Amino acid sequence: MGPGPITVDPRVLRAMSAQLVGQYDPAMTAYMNETQALYREVFRTRNDATVLVDGTSRAGIEAALVSLVHPGDRVLVPVFGRFGHLLREIAERCGAEVHVREVPWGEVFTLEAIEQAVREVRPHLVAVVQGDTSTTMNQPLEGVGEVCHRHGALLYVDCTASLGGNAFEMDAWEVDATTAGLQKCLGGPSGSAPLSLSPRAVAVVDARRSVEAGLRSEDEDAAPAPARIRSNYFDLGMVLDYWGEKRLNHHTEATTMLYGARECARLLLEEGIGNSIARHRLHGEAVLAGVRALGLEVFGDVAHKMHNVVAVQVPDGVDGEAVRAELLHDYGIEIGTSFGPLAGRVWRIGSMGYNARKDAVLLTLAALEQVLRRHGARVPAGAGCVAAQEVYA
Ligand SMILES: *Cc1c(COP(=O)(O)O)cnc(C)c1O
């Protein structure tokens, strides 16, 4: 019941135990095409360029940024938590001239603040996190793409933590590039990063396209080295050629992760994205009501919280890490702490993917109550479960 990775849906585990097939086996290429179509629905986009990057969510972020950002390009990063700092650091490693704007942890940016920063910086790309799990905040994105496009910038969004549990509308919000992972609301393991690029973003990648020597035909030129994307593995031009009609060899697709990613998308779409968001909202509200009824304070601007995770202040006089250890040891329940300024100061309780269930929420609240009492906190008996049950009633 932490902020991810989460318990994997048994259907995803079963899908991942299927036998492997060769990368150009018709069954495999059909799975690849099907997975692209599924993730177009998941991201709510018509983008042709919708694929999986093999690696954890961070691999998706690196692929998007290294492919879209030339050394020297200006990049604007609105930072409201740990993962915003990660975008900044990856953009810096791409050689970008990075401009950061920050709000205190526990808050999000207004559209006006983002527009103001875009006017000042005039970036080539704005890179922003949707749901930053470190603070649990969910940055509103409506209008951000429109602002970026009005000022000639591309918009990249990391929606790893929020996708499937909170609304994400790639096309309607004019997002040019997005990446995710499976281990949050999608109910899968880490290790695959679904990614989608708008035609605008593909045009930027196309301008830097190259084909490896040994794969090129005689009449094709190599792109001059300075223009080339500065990573081979994360060169989205080559990744798109691999997933596209050419099926030009690049890496060997991680077949088992493809099975897993495909099953995650199938689960989400069978449930319906709207139903999945409603389920995450319901269980998130139950956790919120439960911890408040136990007398705990919630961290941050609750009105902008993601549905799938709650950050709770560790009460004075209670050893937060000892509580986490006892929950795990005695009850088999894992909850998280956070990073940097919040390390040890908050607990993060997730209810996402396969764990967004009533039994999981009620057991967590009951166990937390017992452990808190053993650690000297005065908590009203049964209050957490009663409050959660009222949300469910
Ligand atoms: C959890 C999370 C990630 C995880 O990245 P990995 O490489 O899969 O560990 C990335 N971005 C955000 C916003 C997250 O919440």
Automatic annotation (TrEMBL):
<dbReference type="GO" id="GO:0008483">
    <property type="term" value="F:transaminase activity"/>
</dbReference>
<dbReference type="Pfam" id="PF00266">
    <property type="entry name" value="Aminotran_5"/>
</dbReference>
<keyword id="KW-0663">Pyridoxal phosphate</keyword>
<dbReference type="InterPro" id="IPR000192">
    <property type="entry name" value="Aminotrans_V_dom"/>
</dbReference>
<dbReference type="InterPro" id="IPR015424">
    <property type="entry name" value="PyrdxlP-dep_Trfase"/>
</dbReference>
<dbReference type="InterPro" id="IPR015422">
    <property type="entry name" value="PyrdxlP-dep_Trfase_small"/>
</dbReference>
<protein>
    <submittedName>
        <fullName>Alanine--glyoxylate aminotransferase family protein</fullName>
    </submittedName>
</protein>
<dbReference type="InterPro" id="IPR024169">
    <property type="entry name" value="SP_NH2Trfase/AEP_transaminase"/>
</dbReference>
<feature type="domain" description="Aminotransferase class V">
    <location>
        <begin position="27"/>
        <end position="192"/>
    </location>
</feature>
<comment type="similarity">
    <text>Belongs to the class-V pyridoxal-phosphate-dependent aminotransferase family.</text>
</comment>
<dbReference type="InterPro" id="IPR015421">
    <property type="entry name" value="PyrdxlP-dep_Trfase_major"/>
</dbReference>
<keyword id="KW-0808">Transferase</keyword>
<keyword id="KW-0032">Aminotransferase</keyword>
